[in-house]
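>> received
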Amino acid sequence: MEPLLQQMEKELVGQRQNIRLLVTALLAGGHVLLEGVPGIGKTKMVRALSGLIGGESRRIQFTPDMMPSDIIGHVVFNMQDNRFETIKGPVFANLLLADEINRTPPKTQAALLEAMEEGQVTIHGVTYPLPDPFFVVATQNPVEYEGTYVLPEAQLDRFLFKLTMQYPSHESEKQILIQHAPFTRKQEEKQALVYSLDDILAQRRKLQDVVVDDSIFEYITTLIRKTRETKRLLLGASSRAGIAVLMASKAWALLDGREYVTPDDVKMVARPALRHRLILSPQVELEGGTSDHIIEETLAAIPVPR
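>> returned
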């Protein structure tokens, strides 16, 4: 999958790790919550991926007045044919960009998150399977909370990863400006596919062949249980979180060209897989602590298997 990664890195300067984690989530069959301030390339990252792998891609701009039927679809009566017709919503796509998911009410959020979990939706009593692969990338702004509906912990748990996009470095930002200068800007052309949906599904099937040693199972289990024992957290990681770390570790190893998982794979995916599943104690929040800090401290306290 290296050609896909390289092409995305050309289009999104300074986001190498987030790009690789995004593709890792796609391979692992999970979904991604992408958080960052406006104007740093969240939407562009998802569009770049959709343009390179093909398939059906849709974008939903969430608003406070959006209803569940606006996402999953609805039934209308066709007077000309004298029968009811099902109008499928934008959720019927291979890659769905859910922009500013925290700007829509909980009922609408739940409709999308149910589709993410079940891989199907029910419209007027009839169940329809969603396309395979079905990959959701939801975005939210971390600094503007006025008029938003915060995702509950149980719904955050449906996302495999929470990725945070930061401002680019000085050199990366300079490169971005150079790319967008009028005298160097190229006419937008339709991107050539470098990886098909069938290729993605074939790579997913390879995940079952990725070897996980018993010491790695022990390492992940210890990490998950340690988060439940610390008094710095009100809520530690669940068993689903452990499965997320395991599957993401296998996908990261496969993306790296290996058929076995190492402790470094676990360390790489632990933060994006766990940061949104932990609830900090009030004292830690007052001290300015973060989930990332606690995950790093917990990993540092666990003996690394050899």
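>> The chain has a mean pLDDT of 89.
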